[in-house]
Amino acid sequence: MRARVQVFATCLGENFFSDVLKDMVTVLERLGVQCEFPEGQTCCGQPFYNSGFQSQTLALARNWLRAFANTTGYIVAPSGSCTDFVRHRYLELFPPGAPEHPQVEEIASRAVEFTEFLTRVLKVTEMGAHFPHKVTYHAACHSLRNLGLRDEPKLLLQAVEGLELVPLAEEETCCGFGGVFSVIYPEVSRAMMDAKVKNIQASGAEYIVTNEPGCLMNISGVLQRIGSPIKPMHLIQILASSKDSSRPSP
Amino acid sequence: MSAIPTHIDFRRNVQSVEPQVPASVRKATTRFLDTRAAVVDVIGQESWQALRQAGHDVRLHTINHLDYYLARLEEEVTRAGGHVHWARDAQEANRIVLEIAQEHRVKRVVKAKSMVTEEIGLNRTLVDAGVQTLETDLGEYIVQLAGTGPSHIMVPAIHLTKEGIADLFREKLGLDALPEAARLAALARAQLRQEFLAADMGITGANFLVAETGTLVLVTNEGNGRMCTTLPPLHVAVAGIDKVVPDLESLNVLLKLLPRSATGQKMSAYTAFITGPRRTEEENGPKEFHLVLLDNGRTIILQDEITRETLLCIRCGACLNVCPVYNHVGGHAYGFAYSGPIGAILLPQLVGTKVAADLPFASSLCGACADICPVKIPIVEILLRLRRRVVEGDTVEPAVSPATLRLGVQMVARAMSIPWLYDLAGQLLRIAQAPFRRGAWLPSLPPPLNRWTMARPLPALRADWRAAWRRRTPEGRTRQRRIRIALVAALASAAAYVGWRLIQRQDRGE
Q1: What pLDDT does residue B353 have?
Q2: Could you read off the pLDDT of B109-119 as tens digits, one per residue?
Q3: Nearest CA in chain A to B388
Q4: Do B462 and A16 touch (CB under 8 A)?
Q5: What does R_g of chain A's alpha carbons equal in angstroms?
Q6: Closest chain A residue to B417, measured at CA
Q7: Residue A244 has what pLDDT?
Q8: Do A52 and A145 fall within a single domain?
Q9: Domain holding A210: CATH number?
């Protein structure tokens, strides 16, 4: 039986990292999973909720539920943060008794983060990826702490042929993105990401990999600013690399 | 001594943090976290998690039944010969302590480390009334000399270097000391010894108050707390009403959690159990014992079911140690007594969101604090609840943010929840970004987006996923063509409309 999943693009994903989404579909199709993209989806509402505009989140959450209603299969996102938001926070936005509650239970519980889907649902780590480079991994806060994905992303990286995974000091320390935090307190955000980048540089890796578009946007911005040769990548892009695919550098 | 602020501007405070502060803070917090990890390893993760849960449960139970346990506590303290005073707010607590001091003609006060007296600004009240008031915890002694408040709830002078402390001793005490921890401590000890002997009154806080026995528990490492409570003839303890624990059995759980989380010790050097004043047959201890129980906003905190858990805090400081924000800015950036994640949730509730609206946003919501908290305070949940209070208002306080901002955000949120409009906006922004674009990046954007680009460039908006997806199938390609045509038509008509208005304006000769 061919598995079918719904692509949950996320707003950062579709607006800034369409390559990651294309690679996500490529990897899933390689594993025999059929992908669908419900066009009604927009933003899950997390940026509004986390900024305190929690009643304004409802319209976005309702639209998200509408978009994924009448679909089947897991809802797969390239982001642990957005996955966590719809899976856990929607239950609070629409508590038992709210008309949307049954829908939340049915739909939002199908949301999974990409590495979670591979390792916990499909139970695969090996998918013929080939990436002969030195790579280090940054653990994204919400994947790590809210979804409990500590080892899974690294297991996937370790299974990539030719890839050498080198440790990152303070791997689990926030990179300073934090959504609205990064624009309210740019100086603090900057100090946090400078510390992160220092550790990345000290790791000796050619590539810094994470599974969160927010962190990727933040970290790649700093690397660009300082003109670092270290290349940032979403974990999905590594898994999509194969022996015959010549990767343009991101 | 920090005055109770009228407005906390976190960003401005951050900008004035002295450059050596993060390194000093970092050095100490790293050491505490390392020793903490080692003692937790000894217990084992599973038992530690069970202990945290037990700590959470006993604290929550107590907070939910404060009325019962506080009454019991008062009864037992009184039975042991102590005097219990109730203070609604800071002013009342200060007045009570000052009255006790004046009644006993107190000239010199020695104080053990206490965050709650920092919260009420007790030192200022006493000093203003002519009572010499001396901090005897080494860190507090140092920040008192410096004329600032503590920058960490466990380690008040964490922001200072040994060199800075040596300079301070030279400047304020006229003492020449090498910048070595042991020498500096010895100097302070020599200064303090005389003060302990001469003091008329000792003031302490409380780590815990045991309702069952009326016992005040003090957890310290320097022994100064014990000096403050045994040498002077009068002992006054000030404690928040949240400090009560039901019995010795529940205390046992918390005493396992506190030193391990705070300093990575299995047990602190001194754990003092004080039940009432000196008994007739005893030789040591104060003749009189007073306990001032302070509300100062705590009963308001109880009103909200989620933020209520702020009161579970046992002031270990682990959330500060692990917080990446705290580590980069230090404690003074939070503007008042409590700092770090616990400060960010406690201060807005103690001094009001109007004063401390900035603080719930001073977090990247990474969650490291909630993970390390020994009593499992859901700090991230509380931060989010307080952000809502600032922006939208709730049953506890009205909104601080202007209604116009809410209206603007509402319009954006509504627009983004309409799929075709969301898609269209992406396409329009992609065109609009052209003047700012340098290759794949937007290095500098106008306000408010400059708040992002002042720290790092933004990747150029691509917004090309939907088009790419549609191109995968013939039906999709047709759909994409239609959307394209609609977009071009919309842009053309917008251009035509603007042109027409310009012509009209020229015709009118404006």
Answers
A1: 96
A2: 999 999 999 99
A3: A52
A4: yes
A5: 18
A6: A60
A7: 73
A8: no
A9: 3.40.50
Backbone angles phi, psi at B50, to 5 degrees: -65, -40
**pLDDT value at position A250?**
42
Residue for token pair 């009963």: B299
* Statement: residue B262 has pLDDT above 80: yes
Task: Using CB atoms within 10 Å of the CB of residue A33, give its burial: 0 to 12 exposed, 13 to 18 middle, 19+ buried.
Answer: buried
- B/e letters for A61-81, b = 16+ CB within 10 Å, e = fewer, are bbbbbbbbeebeebbbbbbbb
* pLDDT given at position B91: 96
Q: Does the residue A232 lie in any domain?
A: yes
Q: With beta carbons under 8 A apart, name residues in chain A contacting B398.
A: none
The answer on pLDDT for A248 being more than 70 is no
How many angstroms separate the CA atoms of B108 and B100, rounded?
13
Q: How many residues does chain A have?
A: 250
Residue B239 near residue B209 (C-beta atoms within 8 A): yes
Question: Do A109 and A138 fall into the same domain?
Answer: no
Q: How far apart are CA B490 and CA B497, in angstroms?
A: 10
Which residues in chain A are closer than 8 Å to B454, comparing Cβ atoms?
186
Q: Write the DSSP assignment of B223-247 as a string of letters.
A: SHHHHHHHSSSEEEEEEEGGGEES-
Same domain assignment for residues A101 and A189: no
Find the domain containing A202 and state its range.
134-240
Query: Could you tell me the pTM of the whole model?
Result: 0.95
- Kindly state which CATH superfamily the domain B18-131+194-301 is placed in: NagB/RpiA/CoA transferase-like (3.40.50.10420)
Q: List, in order, residues 6 or more apart from A250 with CB less than 8 Å away.
A: A19, A220, A231, A232, A233, A237
Residue with tokens 């616990």, as numbered in its chain: B342
Using CB atoms, pick whichever of A51, A172, A186 lies closest to residue B451. Answer: A186
**What average pLDDT is seen over chain A?**
95
pLDDT digits (tens, 9 = 90+) for B331-375: 999 999 999 999 999 999 999 999 999 999 999 999 999 999 999
What ipTM goes with this model? 0.96
Gap between the terminal Cα atoms of chain A: 35
Which parts of B312-402 fold into alpha helices (H)? 318-322, 324-329, 340-350, 353-356, 368-372, 379-391
Strand, helix or coil for residue A128: coil
Chain mean position to CA B241: 18
**Burial class of residue B373 (count of CB atoms within 10 Å of its CB; 0-12, 13-18, 19+):** buried
Token output for B454: 């002042």
Rounded to the nearest angstrom, the minimum Cα separation between A133 and chain B is 24
Confidence at residue A249, expressed as pLDDT on a 0 to 100 scale: 42
Residue A246 pLDDT level (bands cut at 50, 70, 90): low
Backbone dihedral angles phi then psi of residue B156, each to the nearest 5 degrees: -60, -35
Of A37, A4, A32, A11, give the one whose Cα is nearest residue A22. A37
User: Residue B243 contacts by C-beta under 8 Å, 6 or more apart in sequence?
Assistant: B206, B207, B208, B209
Angstrom distance (rounded) from CA B163 to CA A63: 59
Domain end position, chosen among A100, A122, A144: A122
B387 and A51 within 8 Å at the Cβ level: the answer is yes
pLDDT digits (tens, 9 = 90+) for B118-130: 999 999 999 999 9
Hunting for tokens 């959307």 — which residue is that? Answer: B483
